[in-house]
Structure formats: C-alpha cells, structure tokens
Specification:
Chain lengths: 224, 97
C-alpha cells in the first residue's frame, strides 16, 4: 500500500531530492512541503531532510523552527503522525522542542563526512520497528553539529523510557552516551544524525538505511 | 497608542556562551594555540558570540523583560547556552532625537 510522504523544504535544505527518490523507488508517493506554508497537506508522514536550513544562522535549526510549516508539523506530531528528522532535520526537531536535548559542535571541531556503524538499540519507534534490536547498520554521516547533549535528568529519562533508538558503535563526534538517534515519548517523532537515504543502494556503498525507511512506510500503513 | 515620544531606545548587547560543563572545543583550541604562540599564562578561554541591537521600549523594566524573553525563545538554546545581557540607554543626540 502506498503512502504519501511529505518532505520539508527550507531555504538551504539539500537532501530533499534524495529522500524523495528513495521513497519513490519503494513505491511511495512524495510531496514537497514548503517551509512558508502552514500545512502538512494531508500527508501520512513527514521527513525533515538534511542540509543547512537558513544557512544554519544563529544555530542549526534555530530559525527553521519558527517556519509556518513547523506549526503544522507540531500539530501533526501531537496527533500521532510520524515525523522523522535526518541530520539538519534532527537539529530542527530539537530546536523546536519536539525532541529533547541539543546538537552541539563535534568533539575536536571536526566536520564529519564518512560512513559509520550504528547499532539499533530500540525497535519501538516509527523508524526502527522493522529492524532487529542489536543489528549494526553502516550509514553515512555528514555534519559539524552532531554531538548530542542533554541534561543528566533528560538522559536518565531517555534511557529509562527506551528512547535511544540508535547508538554509534565507535562514537565519531562526542555524542553523550554514543547517541545517534532518539525518539519522542509517543515513539512517532524520531531524530537521527546519520543519513539512511544515502545508504539505500549497494551502488552507494550500503543499503542498510532501507530497513529504517521501510519501517517508516510500514508504520504508516499500520496507522491508516 | 504607539507614540515615539514615549519610548526610549536602548543599546543592547547579548553575549552568548556555552553553559559551564558543556564542552567548548573552540575555546580549548584557542587556548592551546595561545600557549603554542608563547602565551602560556592564558587559561579558561571560552568562545562565544555577541549579538547587538537597538530596542525601543517604554521603560527599562519593559526593555529588560523583552530582551529576556527574546533570548529565552530565540537567541540562546537554554540546553547548551547562557546569555549575559547588558543594556544602556542610547545616546539621543546620536540617534537624532
């Protein structure tokens, strides 16, 4: 069954075509959600793709979070709609308060552009439900501010509520508790720094991202 | 009613720093570089940013409240950053009033 995926476009987004291409190859419909429109246009799921929304001015995500489309996404998420933020999208979700914590500059001030291994820590989220717990996935990362941090109380909450969905096997950026991805309390909002859409074909060096994106598509057909 | 005569202009400086306990790799790098350059006595380097603007408000109390609010909602991310706010009344002669 085909679902309709809304991919958000901010000025400076640059992974929106990749996300659409991978979704279409899997038989899903996609549509662009323009940042200036206060609507999610009836889509079944929202993906906030990577890039540099608003040039990362002030802080990554700080300006994007006030876009009209974010108001609609907050309402969509509150109603249980699946929302996934990849890389810059994760930063936008934390700035918007849809996910706790913040992404700060990588340890050692290194811009990272490589493929890393992440372990699936929880399969209880819209992005990981089809993966096997403990599986290692090879996924590209491409970021400067991917070093996840939060208060000790927030970390304790994330752990006790099983909300760390992905952890780095070999922490590349200094992220607290090796966190690569987390989900909301209701499990329908997920943010992650690695790019599953760039690991969607053996031609790209890995197709380990497909299991995550397919989880998202399946979570839609279950809820609709 | 908005009457320009009733408002005062304030020069506002917001200094944003990473909160204590949050790793500051830029500050650490600057500190190491200074030691390499022959300034070994420098320590506790923290890197931040400064945001300056002019604000019109009816009173200093109102201006302070507004700056606090815009810092909290936008200029800083309270998870990782703190702000130090300084505010002075703008020079009326310089601003043409």
């Amino acid at each position: 069954m085909s679902a309709r995926i809304g991919v958000v476009l901010f000025p400076g987004s640059n992974c929106e075509l990749d996300v659409q291409e991978v979704a279409r190859a899997a038989g899903q419909e996609t549509t662009i959600l323009w940042h200036g429109d206060r609507t999610v246009d009836g889509v079944d799921a929202v993906v906030i793709p990577g890039g540099f929304a608003h040039g990362d001015y002030l802080r990554p995500g700080a300006i994007a979070r006030f876009s009209p489309v974010m108001t609609a996404i907050e309402e969509f998420a509150a109603a249980g709609g699946p929302v996934v933020g990849i890389c810059n999208g994760f930063q936008v979700l934390t700035e918007a308060g849809l996910l706790p914590g913040a992404l700060q500059k990588n340890r050692g001030l290194r811009f990272l552009c490589s493929t890393v291994e992440v372990r699936v820590e929880s399969t209880n989220s819209v992005l990981t439900s089809g993966a096997e717990s403990g599986t290692t996935l090879r996924l590209p990362v491409n970021h400067f501010e991917g070093n996840y941090t939060c208060s000790a109380e927030t970390l304790a909450m994330l752990r006790s509520e099983d909300r760390v969905v992905l952890r780095y096997v070999d922490n590349p950026n200094g992220s607290m508790d090796d966190i690569a991805g987390i989900c909301s309390r209701e499990r329908n909002v997920v943010g992650l720094m690695p790019h599953p859409e760039r690991a969607s074909s053996s031609l790209l060096g890995s197709e380990d991202g497909l299991v995550l994106l397919q989880s998202l598509y399946r979570s839609i057909s279950r809820s609709s | 009613m908005w009457n320009p005569e009733d408002v005062t202009s304030y020069n506002v400086l917001v200094q944003v720093h990473l909160r204590p306990g949050i790793a500051d790799p830029q500050g650490a790098t600057i500190e190491r570089s200074l030691a390499t350059l022959g300034f070994p006595g420098v320590s506790d380097v923290r890197m931040g940013k400064a945001i300056v603007f002019t604000l019109e408000a009816e009173s200093e109390t109102a201006a302070t409240a507004e700056v606090d609010e815009l810092c909290r909602r936008f200029l800083i991310n309270p998870v990782i950053e703190d702000a130090v706010i300084s505010m002075t009344e703008a020079d009326r002669a310089a601003s043409g009033r």
